[in-house]
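#onboarding

Welcome to the new folks! Below is a worked example of what a typical request in this channel looks like: someone posts a single protein sequence, and someone else replies with the predicted structure as tokens. Don't worry about understanding the tokens yet, we'll cover that in week two.

Example request:
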Amino acid sequence: MRAVVFIGPSIDLESASAELDVEFLPPVKRGDLAELLARPEPPEAIGIVDGRFLQSLCISPKEVLEAMDRGVTMFGSSSMGALRAAECSPFGMVGVGKIYEEYFSGRIDADDEVAVTYDEENLSALSEPMVNMRFAIAAGIEQGAFAPETGERFLEIAKELYFPQRVNRTVLMLLRRELPADEHARISAFFAAGAPDTKREDALLLLAAMRDHLDPQIKSVDDRGAL
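Example response:
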């Protein structure tokens, strides 16, 4: 099957290509789906991970619905894909991952939860998405890495920042004023050790779901046998 996936700061091209052999394009913007559908041989499946919203108009739910009306199977996760999947899954779009579930359930509803700034040249993130911070703090509390109230205050401070300023080290610097030194050291150590990257994890789940859709006979690398 012909397939296209729009990726960006959520997952790098090398990692994505290792999971699925399809055409990868940079973050989707308004009009991109129409260009794909105008090809002599349009894709039969399209995945949306990342999308633009400041530099250009963002992709609309109507564009997604029009693609599905043309017979394209649409997948969404992680970022812009999760937003559109939450809106369009009742009409057939396939939503994948924890972030999609948060939007679909209504537990989060603000667009800025997944917003980041990124380097236009290499598509690497320059800020941290609020939703990643939420999952990271939940994991830290579950592990007992720091007190629940410390995590709650971390999220409050992060939410007060404009999304381009949301960087873990910035929030930790602001939190230092309010915490005892030992507690600040505990939460700092948690992030230094590597917090979960839920956007990336969800992007990998989307690629796996598309792989199963495109060829149910293909197994993941971990499931393949050796001769």
